[in-house]
Amino acid sequence: MINMNTPVENASAVYCLDKIKPTQVGDRIKCGLYGWVFFKNGGEADAEIMLGGKVLQPTNFRRMEREDLKNVYPDYTLGKPGFAIFFEFPAERIHEQLTVRFVQGEEKTETCIDTCLYDFRTEPELQYHVDDVYLWHSDEVRIQGWRLAYKAHSLAPAEVKMTLLNDKGEAVVYEREDRIRSDINKMFLQEHPDYESGFKLMCKFGDCLHYTLRLEFEGIVQEEEIDIEFLFVSIREHFRHYRSRWDMWRRGDEQLKKDSAFLIKKFGKEGYKDYVKARLAPTDPNYDKHRREQLITPALLREQKKIAAGFEKQPKISIVVPTYKTPKQFLIDMIESCRIQSYPNWELCIADGSEGDAVVEDILKKYHAKDPRVVYKINKKNLGIAGNTNAALEMATGDYIALLDHDDLLAGDALFEMVKIINAHEDADVLYSDEDKFSEDVEDRFEPAYKPDFNLDLFRANNYICHFFMARADIVKSTEGFRKTFDGSQDFDFIFQCIEKARAVYHVRKVLYLWRCHMGSVAMNPESKMYAYEAGRRAIEAHLERTGETGCKVEMIEGALGYYRTTYPVRDAAKVSVLILHDGTEKNLETCRQSIVKTAGYKDYDMITVIPEEGEDTAAALNRAAEKANGKYLVFTRSTMEILSEDWMPRMLGNVQRKEVGAVGAKTFYRDNTVEHCGYVLGLSGFAGLIMQGQPREAYGRFSKAIVQQNMSAVSGELLMVSKEDFRAVGGFDDSLKGYYYDVDFCLKLGQKKLLIVFDPNVQAYHYVSREDIPDTSDVESLKPENSGSPELEEAARVLKLRWKDLLEAGDPCYNPNWSRIHPDFSYRFKADKE
Predict the structure, then answer these.
(1) pLDDT higher than threshold 50 for residue 629
(2) 9, 659, 740, 753: least surrounded by Cβ within 10 Å?
(3) Model confidence at 526: pLDDT above 50
(4) Cis preceding linkage at 454, omega within 30
(5) Residue 330 contacts by C-beta under 8 Å, 6 or more apart in sequence?
């Protein structure tokens, strides 16, 4: 039997078997055999699979390039040495000898793979992992993970007995939800993609804080200790969202004393102080001040009711809510937040899956009697998040459907602001708003999500739309609704389905939704639902497939839960011309050129050194060079740049070749490892400023804006890619601007043609300006053109302020107006700011 992953060389051929993936489907064994082979005399090799001495006909045989082998075997003509062979045979023949034979004319080589000894199971097997343990509300523990079991000589997954024991060794009653874990199935069960390998166990814990999860299969017993005592104290402390230690003790409740005693025992007095200090949430005076400037008063709500009565369109809004064992006060708060709405034409559709929770049913019954707009349905059993939401959707009779979670709140003007947009825009098919988080006290708000207007690339990187979401009812009915296969990110998948069918997506630039943070809430404890992030990744993949973006790679960004990176394939391997604006320093030019050669990751490109002629400014020189360039795609850069990212050229090409994209820009750093460029924001620093400028290179930015791909109004011309066709279509760069803001103006012209500008932080470069040219971003006044000391810069800003007056007045659609237009760090905007 051959050792897998070990190359074998004989007189005529060299080959290696990398892996074999067998799976049992019914009474058949399906196999994929992967590896590489080449014959020393050149030419392609064929392959034969033999079982028990008889040839099996492959169901598929694919050859592939293997660039990694060219350096290892430079003296041979390899062709396409990589292969993937797929074949199948009856499960009853699992013990027969399996052989693969490589053939080229009369030349043959073969190797034996003993099916009993390699990868097929001769004994039963049990695998499992507990991914997460968290608390739900205040009396329920939830345990999440996955398990797989196989009988001897079988590759089909089998059922596992799962028992939860308390600290006395007694079995406790629990509920279990099984779910598809595509990440696990992809790894172990290629032919069973819909197998529910994931599990979630839920039980009321009472006084027991120590459990044992026991898994049993075919005589195999495995146990996992589940200790929730420390978890319970930790989360309870965190979610109280105390402002100070004095504030903690001022509340003086008995549970706090018990928690403190436990923590002191666990960490000691000094460790306890450090532990608590780390969990305090000091008051953010800037946000408190900012929020007070935007308070919605009872008088304003009364005025809105009068305005709403005069709306030409009075659509009925169906607010759909799935409930499941919702705490009494949470449920009451949610319903009351709907009843205080200043827009009156709504219905609240609640589908409850609490399975006999008399408290929840009693509250719903009383509210329906008090206000007929509150309608509800008691499901016979819990259908899960997706199923319960779909049940609520079935009750809806409105013109628009709005989504609300069972433990969250709507601001009193939420529906009014949405309907105002509907009256102003005929094509308002989908709408969303800003949101905020609160802890136990609704006035204790601490993390506003001020969002951009609809931003396709950002939404493909993160479900930033989330709450408050509303869509026209006929669009909702044309979707597949909330799909169980996306549980945990079912709303992400659903919103994708809606926006794909919408004429337009509108954003209300106000906080209309309040997200409650409590034990088990993803808002406060992102790791409480790790499975949701894998479901989110799959939701993006499904969306890309539906919209024709095939072949994309979607992956989670390490260290940033809920954020994703999409790599678009190169669909047109055309020539790229890299235009390097020369600063006159040969050393800089050589460094730049070498970095391009080293990192491009693409073959068909040329480099053109651009030297301005006498009296010619930057824009004019680049226009001249672009016109002469042979490339179908143009990259503009400078000799003072050193590109850092591997394979940056195909990455930018994949983006710029999308039909909706006009230009792609990169993330750049100064030599002191601070950020130079993460995109331009209109209105910042006078006319257009660089967001995140001066922040540390490793900074994620608010809501990870510095590390995710997104659309911006403009990106820097220091490393920018565009098709030559689009460059010509907008007249290239404006050389009347004397080399200032020509890139911003160019991007805005592309935007006029409904083309997106993409900021890709995965393409990175150093910009080697002199140290004295690195701006002091703490001196915000010095960043304004009028204080630069450059008459040309000031004049360019004046001209462009007039040219793009309407855009500036409307506010940058990629930047929320609640963020500062003075500071480049996503700080809050105040009415007294002098912009």
Answers:
(1) yes
(2) 659
(3) no
(4) no
(5) 406, 407, 516, 518
Residue carrying structure tokens 């030019």: 589
Alpha-carbon distances of 580 from 542, 563, 664, 750, rounded to whole Å = 39, 33, 17, 22
User: How far is the C-alpha of 497 from the C-alpha of 547, rounded, in Å?
Assistant: 10
**747 within 8 A of 662, measured Cβ to Cβ:** yes
Question: Which residues make beta-bridge pairs with 637?
Answer: 580, 719
Whole-number pLDDT of residue 46: 82
How many CA atoms within 13 Å lie on the side-chain side of 547?
20
State whether residue 642 is helix, strand or coil. Answer: strand
Residues 6+ apart with CB under 8 A from 48: 55, 100, 101, 102, 103
Cβ count within 10 A of residue 42 = 11
Q: Name the residue with tokens 């909330």.
A: 482
In angstroms, the CA 663 to CA 634 distance is: 10
**Residues 216, 217, 220, 222: is their CA dihedral positive or negative?**
negative
pLDDT at site 116: 45
Contacts of 487 (CB under 8 A, 6+ apart): 179, 384, 385, 386, 531, 532, 535
For 340, residues 6+ apart whose C-beta sits below 8 A from its C-beta are 301, 412
- For the chain, give the number of residues: 835
pLDDT above 70 (res 524): no
Chain centre distance of CA 502: 21
Contact 498, 432 (CB under 8 A): no
Longest dimension (CA), the chain: 92
Residues 652 and 721: their CA atoms lie apart, in Å, by 7
Structure tokens at 768: 């080697």
**Three-state secondary structure call for residue 327:** coil
Strand partners, 62: 84
Are 353 and 378 in contact by the 8 Å Cβ rule? The answer is: no
Beta-carbon contacts of residue 640 (< 8 Å; ≥ 6 apart): 583, 585, 588, 592, 767, 768, 769
Work out the end-to-end distance of the chain between its first and last CA atoms, rounded to an integer number of angstroms: 75
Q: State the amino acid at position 641 in one-letter form.
A: M
Q: How far apart are CA 260 and CA 266, in angstroms?
A: 10
pLDDT band at 272 (very low <50, low <70, confident <90, very high): confident
Decide: pTM greater than 0.85. Answer: no
Instruction: State how far the Cα of 238 lies from the Cα of 233, in Å rounded to an integer.
Output: 9
Query: Using an 8 Å Cβ cutoff, are 107 and 13 in contact?
Result: yes
Whole-angstrom Cα distance, residue 111 to residue 93?
19
Q: pLDDT by residue (tens digit) across 433-465?
A: 999 988 666 666 778 899 999 999 999 999 999
Question: How far apart are the C-alpha atoms of 448 and 451, rounded to whole Å?
Answer: 9
When pLDDT is averaged across residues 542-567 and rounded to a whole number, the result is 93
Span 390-404, pLDDT tens digits: 999 999 999 999 999
- Per-residue pLDDT of 207-259, as tens digits, reads 787 899 999 999 999 999 988 777 666 655 544 445 555 555 555 556 666 77
Sequence-distant (≥ 6) Cβ neighbours of residue 532 within 8 angstroms: 487, 488, 489, 522
Residues sharing a CB contact under 8 Å with residue 430, sequence separation 6 or more, in sequence order:
469, 470, 471, 472, 475, 495, 498, 499, 502, 504, 505, 506
Own/partner pairs for 295-303, CB < 8 Å, 24+ apart?
296/411, 296/412, 296/413, 300/413, 301/340, 301/342, 301/412, 301/413, 302/342
Residues in a beta bridge with 375:
349
**DSSP structure class, residue 444:** -
734-737: which pairs have CB atoms within 8 A and are 24 or more residues apart? 734/619, 735/617, 735/619, 735/620, 735/623, 736/799, 737/619, 737/796, 737/799, 737/800
- Note the helical H segments in 657-739: 724-729
pLDDT in tens, 33-81: 888 888 888 777 788 888 888 888 887 888 888 877 877 888 888 888 8
CA distance 317 to 296: 21
Q: Where are the beta strands (DSSP E) in 205-249?
A: 210-217, 220-227
What whole-number distance in Å separates Cα of residue 545 and Cα of residue 541? Answer: 6
